[in-house]
Amino acid sequence: LPYADWTEELATLSADLHDPAALAFLQRILPAHSSTRERMPILPRFFSECLADLGEINSVLDIACGLNPLAIPWMPLKPGVTYTACDIFTDMVDFINTFFKHFQLNGRALLADVTQVIPTTQADLVLILKTIPCLEQMDKEAGRRLLTGLDAPNLLVSFPARSLGGRSKGMPRYYEQHFHELVAGRAWHITRFEFPGEIAFLVQK
Hints:
Elements: H1 3-10, H2 20-29, H3 34-39, H4 43-50, E1 59-62, E2 82-87, H5 90-102, E3 107-111, E4 125-129, H6 132-138, H7 142-149, E5 154-160, H8 171-182, E6 189-195, E7 198-204
Parallel strand pairs: 1-2, 1-4, 2-3, 4-5
Antiparallel strand pairs: 5-7, 6-7
Protein backbone atom coordinates (compact mmCIF):
# COMPACT_ATOMS: atom_id res chain seq x y z
CA LEU A 1 0.00 0.00 0.00
CA PRO A 2 1.25 3.53 -0.77
CA TYR A 3 1.81 4.62 2.83
CA ALA A 4 4.39 7.28 1.92
CA ASP A 5 1.97 9.00 -0.48
CA TRP A 6 -0.85 8.81 2.05
CA THR A 7 1.35 10.24 4.80
CA GLU A 8 2.37 13.14 2.58
CA GLU A 9 -1.26 13.89 1.73
CA LEU A 10 -2.34 13.51 5.35
CA ALA A 11 0.10 16.26 6.35
CA THR A 12 -1.80 18.73 4.16
CA LEU A 13 -5.16 18.10 5.87
CA SER A 14 -6.79 19.87 8.80
CA ALA A 15 -6.45 18.18 12.19
CA ASP A 16 -10.25 18.13 12.39
CA LEU A 17 -11.26 14.51 11.77
CA HIS A 18 -14.72 15.58 10.63
CA ASP A 19 -13.51 18.16 8.14
CA PRO A 20 -15.04 17.30 4.71
CA ALA A 21 -11.58 17.04 3.10
CA ALA A 22 -10.41 14.66 5.84
CA LEU A 23 -13.50 12.48 5.49
CA ALA A 24 -13.08 12.39 1.72
CA PHE A 25 -9.45 11.32 2.15
CA LEU A 26 -10.41 8.50 4.52
CA GLN A 27 -13.24 7.33 2.25
CA ARG A 28 -10.80 7.20 -0.64
CA ILE A 29 -8.11 5.11 1.06
CA LEU A 30 -10.26 2.77 3.18
CA PRO A 31 -11.02 0.64 0.08
CA ALA A 32 -7.30 -0.04 -0.40
CA HIS A 33 -7.60 -2.92 2.09
CA SER A 34 -9.93 -5.74 1.05
CA SER A 35 -11.70 -6.01 4.42
CA THR A 36 -12.63 -2.33 4.65
CA ARG A 37 -13.34 -2.12 0.90
CA GLU A 38 -16.12 -4.70 1.30
CA ARG A 39 -17.57 -2.74 4.25
CA MET A 40 -17.68 0.65 2.51
CA PRO A 41 -21.26 0.30 1.14
CA ILE A 42 -22.57 -0.45 4.65
CA LEU A 43 -20.13 1.67 6.67
CA PRO A 44 -22.67 4.25 7.93
CA ARG A 45 -24.96 1.41 9.13
CA PHE A 46 -22.51 -1.21 10.30
CA PHE A 47 -21.15 0.36 13.48
CA SER A 48 -24.24 2.39 14.37
CA GLU A 49 -26.47 -0.70 14.28
CA CYS A 50 -24.05 -3.17 15.87
CA LEU A 51 -23.06 -0.85 18.73
CA ALA A 52 -26.36 0.97 19.29
CA ASP A 53 -27.17 -0.74 22.60
CA LEU A 54 -23.77 -0.35 24.26
CA GLY A 55 -24.11 3.22 25.49
CA GLU A 56 -20.88 5.17 26.00
CA ILE A 57 -17.79 3.42 24.69
CA ASN A 58 -14.71 4.81 26.40
CA SER A 59 -12.09 2.37 25.11
CA VAL A 60 -11.64 0.13 22.07
CA LEU A 61 -9.19 -2.64 21.18
CA ASP A 62 -9.06 -3.40 17.44
CA ILE A 63 -7.56 -6.84 16.70
CA ALA A 64 -5.71 -7.33 13.39
CA CYS A 65 -6.97 -3.86 12.58
CA GLY A 66 -5.86 -3.31 9.01
CA LEU A 67 -7.15 0.12 7.97
CA ASN A 68 -10.25 -0.15 10.18
CA PRO A 69 -9.16 2.63 12.64
CA LEU A 70 -9.63 5.07 9.77
CA ALA A 71 -13.36 4.37 10.09
CA ILE A 72 -13.47 6.02 13.55
CA PRO A 73 -15.58 8.96 12.27
CA TRP A 74 -18.36 6.47 11.51
CA MET A 75 -18.20 4.74 14.91
CA PRO A 76 -20.47 5.82 17.82
CA LEU A 77 -17.60 6.44 20.23
CA LYS A 78 -17.29 8.85 23.13
CA PRO A 79 -15.11 11.92 22.42
CA GLY A 80 -11.62 11.25 23.72
CA VAL A 81 -12.06 7.47 23.47
CA THR A 82 -8.92 5.42 24.02
CA TYR A 83 -8.33 3.39 20.85
CA THR A 84 -5.72 0.63 20.75
CA ALA A 85 -5.12 -1.10 17.43
CA CYS A 86 -2.86 -4.03 16.66
CA ASP A 87 -1.65 -5.63 13.47
CA ILE A 88 1.18 -7.86 12.30
CA PHE A 89 2.46 -5.51 9.58
CA THR A 90 4.97 -2.86 10.66
CA ASP A 91 4.18 -0.41 7.84
CA MET A 92 0.45 -0.66 8.62
CA VAL A 93 1.08 0.02 12.32
CA ASP A 94 3.32 3.00 11.53
CA PHE A 95 0.69 4.56 9.27
CA ILE A 96 -2.11 4.07 11.79
CA ASN A 97 0.03 5.80 14.42
CA THR A 98 0.61 8.68 11.99
CA PHE A 99 -3.17 8.89 11.49
CA PHE A 100 -3.77 8.99 15.26
CA LYS A 101 -1.12 11.67 15.78
CA HIS A 102 -2.28 13.91 12.92
CA PHE A 103 -5.89 13.99 14.11
CA GLN A 104 -4.83 14.25 17.78
CA LEU A 105 -6.68 11.08 18.73
CA ASN A 106 -6.10 9.19 21.96
CA GLY A 107 -4.90 6.15 20.05
CA ARG A 108 -1.92 3.90 19.58
CA ALA A 109 -1.15 1.07 17.18
CA LEU A 110 0.95 -1.88 18.28
CA LEU A 111 2.76 -4.64 16.44
CA ALA A 112 1.21 -7.96 17.53
CA ASP A 113 0.84 -11.54 16.32
CA VAL A 114 -2.38 -12.58 18.01
CA THR A 115 -1.88 -16.23 17.06
CA GLN A 116 1.00 -16.20 19.54
CA VAL A 117 0.02 -13.67 22.23
CA ILE A 118 -3.44 -12.40 23.14
CA PRO A 119 -3.37 -8.65 23.88
CA THR A 120 -3.90 -7.84 27.54
CA THR A 121 -5.20 -4.31 26.94
CA GLN A 122 -8.49 -3.83 28.77
CA ALA A 123 -11.26 -2.20 26.77
CA ASP A 124 -15.01 -1.63 26.81
CA LEU A 125 -15.19 -3.04 23.30
CA VAL A 126 -13.00 -5.35 21.23
CA LEU A 127 -13.35 -5.39 17.44
CA ILE A 128 -12.55 -8.73 15.76
CA LEU A 129 -13.69 -7.97 12.24
CA LYS A 130 -13.33 -10.70 9.61
CA THR A 131 -10.18 -11.77 11.47
CA ILE A 132 -10.91 -15.26 12.79
CA PRO A 133 -10.94 -17.06 9.40
CA CYS A 134 -7.50 -15.62 8.61
CA LEU A 135 -6.07 -16.58 12.01
CA GLU A 136 -7.47 -20.10 11.79
CA GLN A 137 -5.63 -20.69 8.53
CA MET A 138 -2.46 -20.57 10.64
CA ASP A 139 -3.81 -22.08 13.88
CA LYS A 140 -7.23 -23.75 13.96
CA GLU A 141 -7.63 -22.97 17.68
CA ALA A 142 -6.78 -19.28 17.33
CA GLY A 143 -10.40 -18.09 17.14
CA ARG A 144 -11.56 -19.96 20.22
CA ARG A 145 -8.48 -18.90 22.19
CA LEU A 146 -8.97 -15.26 21.23
CA LEU A 147 -12.67 -15.11 22.11
CA THR A 148 -12.18 -16.69 25.52
CA GLY A 149 -8.90 -14.97 26.37
CA LEU A 150 -9.74 -11.32 25.72
CA ASP A 151 -10.46 -9.24 28.83
CA ALA A 152 -13.45 -7.18 27.69
CA PRO A 153 -17.19 -7.11 28.38
CA ASN A 154 -18.13 -6.63 24.72
CA LEU A 155 -16.75 -8.19 21.54
CA LEU A 156 -17.93 -7.34 18.03
CA VAL A 157 -17.02 -10.33 15.89
CA SER A 158 -17.68 -10.50 12.15
CA PHE A 159 -17.17 -12.89 9.26
CA PRO A 160 -17.27 -12.43 5.50
CA ALA A 161 -20.56 -13.32 3.84
CA ARG A 162 -19.08 -13.33 0.34
CA SER A 163 -15.77 -14.31 -1.23
CA LEU A 164 -13.52 -11.61 -2.66
CA GLY A 165 -15.01 -12.56 -6.03
CA GLY A 166 -18.47 -11.65 -4.75
CA ARG A 167 -19.94 -15.15 -4.40
CA SER A 168 -21.77 -16.24 -1.26
CA LYS A 169 -21.28 -20.02 -1.59
CA GLY A 170 -23.09 -20.66 1.69
CA MET A 171 -20.57 -18.61 3.66
CA PRO A 172 -23.02 -16.90 6.06
CA ARG A 173 -24.50 -20.23 7.15
CA TYR A 174 -21.07 -21.85 7.47
CA TYR A 175 -19.55 -19.04 9.53
CA GLU A 176 -22.61 -18.67 11.74
CA GLN A 177 -22.45 -22.36 12.59
CA HIS A 178 -18.70 -22.13 13.18
CA PHE A 179 -19.11 -19.07 15.43
CA HIS A 180 -21.65 -20.89 17.60
CA GLU A 181 -19.24 -23.81 17.89
CA LEU A 182 -16.56 -21.40 19.13
CA VAL A 183 -18.80 -19.95 21.86
CA ALA A 184 -20.61 -23.16 22.81
CA GLY A 185 -21.00 -23.63 26.55
CA ARG A 186 -20.40 -19.95 27.36
CA ALA A 187 -23.09 -18.00 29.20
CA TRP A 188 -22.69 -15.01 26.91
CA HIS A 189 -25.43 -12.89 25.35
CA ILE A 190 -25.18 -12.94 21.55
CA THR A 191 -26.85 -10.50 19.15
CA ARG A 192 -26.71 -11.31 15.45
CA PHE A 193 -26.51 -8.78 12.59
CA GLU A 194 -26.51 -9.48 8.88
CA PHE A 195 -25.40 -7.06 6.20
CA PRO A 196 -24.62 -7.43 2.50
CA GLY A 197 -21.18 -9.03 2.51
CA GLU A 198 -20.75 -9.40 6.27
CA ILE A 199 -22.33 -11.22 9.21
CA ALA A 200 -21.63 -9.91 12.71
CA PHE A 201 -22.18 -10.96 16.32
CA LEU A 202 -22.10 -8.72 19.37
CA VAL A 203 -20.86 -10.84 22.27
CA GLN A 204 -21.65 -9.49 25.72
CA LYS A 205 -19.73 -11.44 28.33
